[in-house]
Design goal:
Elements (H helix, E strand, L loop, with lengths): L3 H13 L3 H14 L5 H14 L5 H5 L8 H10 L3 H10 L5 H14 L5 H6 L6 H14 L2 H11 L6 H18 L3 H11 L6 H13 L5 H10 L3 H11 L7 H9 L4 H14 L5 H7 L5 H14 L5 H8 L4 H13 L5 H7 L6 H13 L6 H7 L5 H14 L5 H10 L3 H17 L9 H9 L2 H11 L5 H10 L5 H12 L7 H10 L3 H15 L8 H14 L3 H11 L5 H8 L7 H15 L4 H14 L3 H15 L7
Helix pairs in contact: 2-3, 3-5, 5-7, 6-7, 7-9, 9-11, 10-11, 11-12, 11-13, 12-13, 13-14, 13-15, 14-15, 14-16, 16-17, 17-19, 18-19, 19-21, 20-21, 21-23, 23-25, 24-25, 25-27, 26-27, 26-28, 27-29, 28-29, 29-31, 31-33, 32-33, 33-34, 33-35, 34-35, 34-36, 35-37, 36-37, 37-38, 37-39, 38-39
């Protein structure tokens, strides 16, 4: 254990002394500063000495303080070197430098916060160069303390702008530091001195804010006086400082002022009360929400969104139905943000309102709040005779309904009076499917039952809905619909089939495309078939997808149909897909075929390099499109270039 003190000493000296490498580097860098090296090289040397320099580097750095190109780099280094010699060098330079170099040295002394520099800096407050005098004021502010403040005050009495402004700013910041140090009473005299009508507005604002900060237990009194004042500087400072006052009596004070101040101040006070989050302010805010002034109403409504409870809903709904855009926007947002009390239940309870405008806003709020408990009431409103209410309810259900509501949606389809109403209900079905994971299965029994009992119009609507789901019973309904005695049902079934998401219906789509004599229906069936080949949820292998697309390509008649098949084929990384794209598909789609071959071949390079390389070589020399040739050449080059060997 006796060796422990020696270990401590060794560690101390190892950390207290610079490393040999640093000493050698410092010697080299100081020599560079004294050489004919370029200014850029010397700047780099100064930056490095800032990190590794010692007192030995100070003379070389000090020699640069008068250099108009290098003074800043030298000041930066001397500013941070923790040696007395660095500060002395900066002070000495004040006697031989002028302009920017002198201001740079002054700034560095201020950053060092060395009290020994205070007399030199104070003497420069009266310098003829405003830059030097202003820099000195800022440096004294950083040093701080009673003597710095005394010298700044003396200089302020004789100074003129811009130097006086710099001195005033320095004094105010010194006073702020005194407040932080617990010397509020000493700081108060400085703040009071500059809270004078002869001062600039920003100075008076800062001074009054300082008076509040230094007032101790009286700060609420000063804030109140500032808010009631007609002086904009006092008002601005009071509003700013009011946010940080923890005094529980502040809310009572601000709400008292609310009723007796001009609209602009009322708006500011409402924002202040909202930010404080004290619910005791709610009665006064409710009163303000009924003001004749629009700006006050808007601010009050916004505050109620944060502080109000469910009892504020009627007032907020009134705002949401306003014809004033700003008030309407504030009301809608407040209804969404309202959290105190059982808001959801209160919103639902008021849905029975006979005013359609109110119903629409309540529905909008429930949807935005994702209140799924409102779904049963929304289904009732979706049967409303009022178009705006009905549409709003369906739009909300598009966000709130789920798979458990299919039966209710089928009922809505059944009672719909026209195709527009049925389309609105279909959009809810679509939203449910889009919001649900693809792997989840739906119980489509309500749709199956609806198809069995419905009239032709409802059957057509439900067949369109059936395209969203995959179920054996719905497949049977499609196949039956294609043979329905009613031509309109047959036509609607065929078109709905083209939108199916059920891969089990692909043979039916292929058959429809093969046998349809109608150009548009043939195209739709082929499009639906190709879409399903690319559907990841189908789980088709690349080989299977190529096989399926072969059937589609054989049925493609028009160029646009061939392009669609080739676009899908380009995503299939399999030799069979490449072979299919290389067939003679016609001059009208040669460019698309070449692009598909390029994409497939590039994807096949890792797994089937021989086949892919052969195709790329042909494309690199004979492709019709420049971009295809260039891409093929680039792919071949990358493929043939061996990767760099590991080191």
């Amino acid at each position: 254990m006796k060796t422990l003190p020696w270990i401590v000493l060794i560690l101390f000296f190892a950390t207290a002394l610079p490393a040999t490498a640093d000493v050698a580097e410092e010697t080299r860098l100081t020599a560079l500063l004294q050489s004919d090296a370029t200014p850029a090289a010397k700047e780099d040397a100064c930056r490095r000495l800032k990190q590794v320099g010692t007192a030995q580097a100070v003379p070389a750095l000090a020699a640069l303080l008068g250099d108009t190109h290098l003074y800043q780099a030298a000041c930066d280094a001397l500013e941070t070197l923790p040696y007395v010699e660095a500060g002395e060098a900066l002070r000495a330079s004040l006697k031989i430098t002028t302009g920017n170099p002198k201001a740079g040295a002054i700034h560095a002394l201020g950053e060092r916060r060395n009290p020994s520099a205070l007399p030199d800096l104070a003497n420069l407050l009266n310098d003829a160069d405003p830059l030097v005098a202003s820099s000195s004021a800022n440096a004294l502010r950083r040093i701080g303390g009673p003597e710095a403040i005394r010298r700044l005050r003396l200089a302020e009495m004789q100074a003129s702008d811009p130097v006086r402004s710099a001195i005033v700013d320095a004094l105010l910041q010194c006073a702020v530091q005194w407040v932080k140090d617990g010397r509020g009473a000493d700081a108060a005299s400085i703040f009071e001195q500059f809270d004078s009508p002869k001062e600039k507005d920003h100075v008076r604002t800062a001074a009054y804010a300082g008076r509040i900060q230094s007032a101790g237990d009286r700060w609420l009194t000063l804030v109140t006086a500032g808010l009631e004042s007609n002086d904009p500087s006092h008002q601005t400072a009071a509003l700013h400082m009011a946010r940080s006052i923890p005094d529980p009596d502040a809310t009572t004070t601000y709400t008292r002022l609310l009723a007796n101040t001009p609209p602009a101040m009322q708006v500011a006070l409402l924002g202040l009360l909202q930010e404080r989050g004290d619910v005791r302010a709610v009665p006064a805010i409710v009163s303000a929400a009924q003001s004749a002034d629009l700006s006050v109403r808007v601010a009050a409504v916004a505050a109620l969104g944060a502080l109000g409870d469910s009892t504020a809903i009627p007032l907020l709904t009134t705002a949401a139905t306003s014809h004033e855009e700003s008030e309407q926007k504030a009301g809608r947002q407040a209804l969404i943000e309202l959290r105190r009390g059982n808001v959801a239940a209160a919103l639902v309870a008021q849905l029975v309102s006979t005013n359609p405008e109110v119903q629409v806003e309540l529905i909008r709020a429930l949807a935005a709040r994702s209140e799924k408990s409102a779904a049963p009431n929304l289904f009732l409103l979706a049967r409303s005779d009022t178009a705006t209410t009905r549409k709003a309810a369906l739009q909300a259900l598009s966000r709130l309904a789920d798979g458990s509501h299919l039966a209710s949606l089928v009922e809505l389809v059944n009672v719909a009076n026209d195709e527009t109403a049925r389309a609105d209900v279909r959009s809810v079905f679509e939203s449910i499917v889009e919001r649900t994971e693809r792997t989840r299965r739906f119980d489509v029994t309500p749709i199956v039952n609806g198809l069995a009992d419905a009239n032709a119009g409802t059957r057509i609507a439900l067949l369109q809905v059936s395209a969203l789901f995959a179920d054996a019973r719905l497949r049977a309904a499609f196949r039956a619909g294609l043979k329905d005695p009613d031509a309109a049902v047959r036509e609607a079934t065929a078109r709905a089939l083209c939108n199916s998401r059920d891969a089990e219906l692909m043979p039916d789509l292929l058959e429809l495309a093969r046998n349809s004599g109608e150009v548009s229906l043939h195209a739709l069936a082929l499009e639906g078939y190709v879409r399903l080949t690319s559907d990841e949820s189908s789980g088709f292998s690349a080989q299977k997808r190529a096989e399926l697309l072969k059937n589609a390509l054989e049925l493609a008649r028009r160029p646009e149909e061939k392009r669609a098949v080739l676009a899908a084929l380009a995503e299939v990384a399999h030799p069979n897909a490449l072979e299919l794209a290389e067939r003679n598909v016609g001059e009208d789609v040669r460019k698309e075929a070449e692009l598909a071959r390029l994409q497939i071949a590039k994807a096949l390079l890792p797994s089937a390099p021989a086949v892919a390389e052969k195709t790329l070589q042909r494309l690199a020399t004979s492709a019709r499109t420049d971009s295809v040739r260039t891409n093929a050449q680039s792919a071949l080059k990358q493929f043939k270039t061996p990767p760099p060997s590991p080191r």
